[in-house]
Protein 1
Amino acid sequence: MYVNIKKIKDPEIVIEEFQDQYGTINSLSQRVSISKCTTKNEMEDLMVWKYLKSGAVFEEEIVLHNSDIFDVLTPKRMELVDYLTKNKASSIRKLSEAVHRNYKNTYDDLLALEKMGLVEFKRSGKSRIPISFVIRVETVFEH
């Protein structure tokens, strides 16, 4: 059994993340050329950045193979992913209120979902805004 998760991310958000990490696309390009492509992540990031600037869509697929998958993807956590997919939350507190859950439990579940790549946080002042780009979660049972 495995779970297949498909995410589509707003290209502007991905570009902002690259800018935070590398500065400009030119500075990343220089870093890649100086290192003679020995840093795989930087080379991949440069290629993705160039494609996004030309109008491409950022699509990512996560496959989770784990016998304890449903210990991690609990109904309450999937409820958070579902809510964030359909709605925006301005903060973790607002999210916990919207789903009628305790703040600490919501926060802990968001951290677990972040580790799996299903939720990300964007900073806004002192707040951390939870975001999910998941568009499909598919459970596949193999025999």
Protein 2
Amino acid sequence: MKYPICALAVACLATTANAQPYEITSHTIDGGGGTIAGATYELSGTIGQADVGTPLAGATYELTGGFWTAAAPSRLCADQNEDGFVTPTDFTAWIANFNTNDLRADTNQDGTVSPTDFTAWIAAFNQGANGPVCNP
């Protein structure tokens, strides 16, 4: 009599058992790393694929972790006709870009095309190939 009651209790428990939830967690392969620093720039990293997440951004540069992405197009801010050179013809191109509210004329990279961009363009032009880089 004792065994049939135990068998009935085991059968009731077996029908109400739930499976454990499964979870896939994120892992990275990090093997240390370090920091490289120069007079102006500093880069820290680890060995392995960087974690996917929100871009790390500073005043001028941005670092996006995760899968390899295509590089954002960039050009010298003074190169308004996008021929790869900083020449006097870029002044005419800057005026045309400014008059059409083209973001290439946003030389100070504040998100708007305004007269202050002209002062920034002159400074960038005077620096030539060593001038600031703009996107777009």
Protein 3
Amino acid sequence: MKYIKYIHLVFAILFMVFASVQFNDPDGSLWIAAYSSAALASVISFAGKMPKKVLVGLIGVTVFALVMMMPNTYASLVNFDPNLPHDPVITHTSNVQTENFKEIGGVGMILISLGLQYLTLPKVESEVV
């Protein structure tokens, strides 16, 4: 069980790779910031220095982002058209609909990482007064 903290290091490397491939994305600066923040949080958790309140705050922000993305993702799912052409202004690899799925997947991975960090926080013994 003591080696579980290394999963944070794996997530940190993964998020740094994700951030490094966002430069050609129209909203890349947003994703670079999100993935870099997740990588930093993972490194801090790996070091065992993550404050619980900060981690809970990051989880709250991530859940809020997921909730805000749900309407567009749901609309893309309901109105999915596999023959929709690629829009080079939005992304060079996919159309608007699949971009929503990719973005919510990225935020979901951040939430999974933060959740694992929360579950592996060191237990603090409370003092009895």
